[in-house]
Amino acid sequence: MNQHEDNSKKPVLVNFEPALRQIGTIDCPICKTRTAVFLTKTNRPFLNCGFCSARIFFNGRESIRLLKRKMQPLEDSEGNPKFRLV
Question: Per-residue pLDDT tens for 9-68?
């Protein structure tokens, strides 16, 4: 194969999308650093603190209710929440 043939190929545009959906932010209960709240593949909220490496999953109704009270949801350009926990 000739080198000139390899250079003639057009580059492919790659769109990177996050693996998990971010739904808001909350203070880490361990170190109090502001951190993101994500949804798992089964739509359960959890936080993964980048400062202290704590991973906290919110599985029960009461824990999700407390998360709703403390979490600051992400908003779209119109000021509406991007996602609502049920």
Answer: 788 888 887 788 889 999 999 999 999 999 988 889 999 999 999 999 999 999 999 999
Chain position carrying tokens 């824990």: 63
Domain ranges of the chain: 18-86
User: How many Cα neighbours within 13 Å face the side chain of 11?
Assistant: 3
Record the tokens describing residue 11, joined without a space.
């580059």
